[in-house]
Amino acid sequence: MPETNDIDETPDAPAIPDGVLLQVEDLHKSYGDFEVLRGVSFELRRGDSLAVLGRSGTGKSVTLRQLNGLEIPDQGRVTFDGIEINELSEKELVPVRRRIGMLFQGGALFDSMTVLDNVAYPLREHTSWSDDEIAERVEHKLELVRLPGIGHKMPADLSGGMRKRVALARSLALDPELMLYDEPTTGLDPVTSSAIGQLILRTQDDLGVSSLVVTHDLPLARTVARRIAFLHGGSFRFLGTWEEADSSPDSMVRDFLAGRAEIEDAA
Ligand SMILES: Nc1ncnc2c1ncn2[C@@H]1O[C@H](COP(=O)(O)OP(=O)(O)OP(=O)(O)O)[C@@H](O)[C@H]1O
Ligand SMILES: [Mg+2]
Does domain 20-99+176-266 sit in CATH 3.40.50.300? Predict the structure, then answer.
């Protein structure tokens, strides 16, 4: 337990300063000759929430993978809580990854494992907790995603929305400070999507987790994110609040938010 002797200080002061948690500077990433990211930069403060929007194939998932060391950018820098993660070895990255949860696009569970074993997986990898401690944490996280008591079930017995919530419970198992969500509502009906949105909001508001949400689901983005970024041509063409986006002089941003660009694409 940390010492809390500073009772003379303002008692309501937040334990964690409201500083920059994630700083991303000028990320570049190519695959072969194809330059996907051409200078992505942004900051995320503690407790903040940012939605990253953009058309299919613009590099949203690629961006997320550079943020927790899954991939190394060709150029640029990612600093998480003052730690420059591109400088770390695989071993040094482990404790940092613990603090960054990721809900993958598709949110794949291990089909051959029970729900309990799925959610317990990161706990077994990263802690030396007893089985009882792990079971307790797993149940707590299942309650958080409103699926209490389903630890014994297999993923195949669950609906798509339930599987997504189990995947969310798994990504929250280690109490991350930052959550990266890649398309958390793809393939879900509007009611289930809205329930996922509420869970993301609760994670932010009740647990103080900062979040970065990549999504095509505009209602979800409006529910969970204070700011939005619009990825286009390898960098953020827009970054700001919803108010700023809605009145942006950039017609591409306004069209995208109105769903017009997507219709053109689908044609
Ligand atoms: N490992 C990889 N090797 C080669 N090309 C890749 C790799 N990962 C991504 N790409 C390419 O980078 C581009 C961006 O991919 P990315 O998955 O980030 O798109 P996205 O914005 O997440 O799209 P969507 O909205 O469809 O999920 C695509 O053209 C993709 O084919
Ligand atoms: Mg993607």
Answer: yes
